[in-house]
Amino acid sequence: MTDEQQIRTLIEHWAAAVHAGDLAAVLAEHSPDLVMFDVPPPYEGVRGMDAYTETWPGFFEWQRSGASFELVSLDVTAGTDVAFAFALLRCGTPDEFKVKPELRLRLTIGLKKLDGRWTITHEHHSFPHDDVPAPVVASEIGAVLDRWGTDTAAGDLDALMEPIADDVVSYEIDGNYEGKAAVREVCAAGLASSPDSISFSIPDPTVVSAGNLAVAWSIDHVTADGTETTSRATRVFRNTGSSWELIHQHLSYPAS
Q1: Are residues 198 and 214 in the same domain?
Q2: Which residues are within 8 A (CB) of 220 and not within 5 positions of it... i.e. 6 or more apart?
Q3: Where, if anywhere, are coiled coils annotated (predicted)?
């Protein structure tokens, strides 16, 4: 085999060993002084075979929950005694892929030819950092809440439902509802309860976020038939990659 073919086979065997949870095969073909830049800390990297070995049992345990570790692409460039490869892997749980089907682990591997054998001396694993800056999230969630006000005034039920997740769970004033269809019925009944347009506004929502989740809490103002009421609201949103969708909300009045 050519050097590129040898390295490709080595990495394919390594990835298969990771997926199988075969620690001995994972450690094979690695230099004792290797350095790995992994997804979790330490930030200075994992250095040496002992430290590298210790990273795998926890990963194997997570993988037994049904997670994948599969090569999607692999490119290899080899010189006389130094080589590198870069790859994308499908690494995640079924639930993670439901939310983000394109999720990929990025991998770069450095190798040296030692005693006539290609040996891994460096690994770098990472996922893209997709946290949206907090001010941007607050603006985007604020836009969703403002649009609900506009759509409520227009009586546009379809538009109201657009940012609602199929698996939403909503704790409403009058009961608990699961699923988009159930929440749609609640909203339809609300719109039909007033002969005039309904005003719905959230003046000063607070939004905090991390990763693909955001939480907003607020005092909601609703005016129908000339009467204004206020209620407390906590809402959880999930970023689908293209928009924010409501996955949970909790509405209440203070106990009198």
Answers
A1: yes
A2: 200, 201, 202, 230, 231, 232, 233, 251
A3: none
pLDDT tens across 47-60, in order?
999 999 999 999 99
Domain end, chosen from 77, 106, 126, is at 126
Domain match, 175 and 244 both: yes
Is residue 146 located within the same domain as residue 241? yes
Asked which of 63-67, 98-102, 200-204 is least confident by mean pLDDT, the reply is 98-102
Q: What's the CATH number where 120 sits?
A: 3.10.450.50
**Same domain as 57, residue 41:** yes
pTM: 0.59
Could you give the number of structural domains in the chain?
Answer: 2
Residue 241 confidence (pLDDT): 77
**32 and 57 belong to one structural domain:** yes
Domain region containing 169 = 134-252
